[in-house]
Design goal:
The structure is a homodimer of 207-residue chains. Chain A has helices at residues 14-27, 39-45, 52-55, 57-74, 89-97, 104-116, 125-131, 139-146, 149-164, 186-200; strands spanning 2-7, 31-36, 172-175, 178-181. By secondary structure, the first copy, chain A, is α+β, with helices and mostly antiparallel strands. Chain A has one domain (2-200): Glutaredoxin (3-Layer(aba) Sandwich). In chain A, helix 1 runs antiparallel to helix 6 (104-116), helix 5 (89-97) packs across helix 8 (139-146) and helix 5 (89-97) crosses helix 9 (149-164). The radius of gyration of chain A is 17 Å and the shape is globular. The A-B interface holds A 46, 56, 58-59, 61-62, 65-66, 69, 73, 166, 168-169, 179-182, 184-185, 188 and B 46, 56, 58-59, 61-62, 65-66, 69, 73, 166, 168-169, 179-182, 184-185, 188.
Chain lengths: 207, 207
């Protein structure tokens, strides 16, 4: 059974999800499908040209405090980035193009740490190159492939697909047609997928 | 130690919170301060003249599905009301005026059940009178007192207070100056209050 993880590298609550989804999914033998998308394009269609956490600053201030508490409870390091939201186009192209590479989950965690732990600029090629060191592959050729028109189109299409699935925020999770939104729904989505998986196992029969 | 429960009778996620907060708080010997307010007035200031779940319908459709799942997990009956958001002014005035009455928690649960289980009109005096049967007191005089100018002013002031505390949605919880938002933060808010309570108990000393 698969769980699709839809995320945006600028999204605050996607950070604690990205740091823990792999171990949670593994505990239920679930496969993660990594689905980066550009949440800003979805927001644009709702009439927002900035993060709603900036537009609605009272809610935004609450979010930073809440995220701090959430990360503290999960023992995940957190420092409020100076720039929010950051431009995650380059790492999104990398993660889309190489979504099935064995190193993609490590890369994704590195980019989130760069943003929400180390206050680094994730639109910088140097920062993303450094995040790609975990790949053990030739970093320059990864970046080159991520910047082809084909890769750009793939990310655009994936963002379109997010909209078609009714995704309006990040992180989101899809298990079949069932949609879950928010870091605080991660456990429920994992359980949903595990229940579906259990149902799909045919009972053993000697006959 | 006290936990303030800020709620709006039209608010969807306040429903599962209202149905379970009393037993959760009791398990930690916490006192609940019941704080109804008019969320619509807060939304108005953000430029919304309707629930954001109606304005942003994709998010709204997700919310109904999610609320259904949440209530199902908690074994709380749920039926999507035909009218949303309902006008909760009258029950809010009652709950504000009688926030310290021993029957207030039962009344609040009755109103939420009327809205989210029985699809009743909670702006109707007859419905609210029926919800007040749990009080064991003279219902007509309760309604009369709730409709005085003094009671109306009290609810207005309480809504102002919500805004001053940085409350932007419901349910919200305040433990001292710490703010929590959402049914999915109820357990964390209860734990926060319990931890504060434990810290406030002076160690016993023989000296």
């Amino acid at each position: 059974m698969k769980i699709e993880f839809w995320f945006d590298f600028a999204s605050t609550y996607s950070y604690p999800t990205a740091m823990r989804i792999e171990s949670l999914a593994a505990s239920q033998n679930l496969e993660i499908v990594w689905r980066p998308f550009m949440l800003g394009a979805i927001f644009n269609r709702q009439g927002w040209n900035d993060s709603p956490f900036n537009i609605y600053s009272v809610k935004g201030e609450y979010m930073w405090r809440d995220l701090n508490r959430v990360c503290d409870d999960l023992q995940i390091p957190f420092f409020r980035p100076k720039i929010f939201p950051q431009n995650g186009l380059l790492p999104s192209r990398v993660a889309t193009t190489f979504s099935e590479a064995p190193w993609v989950s490590s890369f994704i965690r590195s980019v989130y740490s760069a943003n929400f732990e180390h206050n680094q600029d994730i639109s910088s090629p140097e920062v993303i190159e450094s995040c790609l060191n975990c790949s053990g592959e030739d970093v320059a050729s990864i970046i080159k492939k991520a910047n082809t028109e084909e890769s750009k189109d793939r990310l655009r299409k994936q963002t379109e697909d997010a909209g078609k699935k009714g995704i309006f925020g990040a992180p989101s999770f899809c298990v079949g047609k069932e949609l879950f939104w928010g870091n605080d729904r991660l456990e429920r989505a994992i359980q949903w997928a595990a229940d579906k998986k259990a149902q799909s196992i045919k009972p053993y029969s000697r006959d």
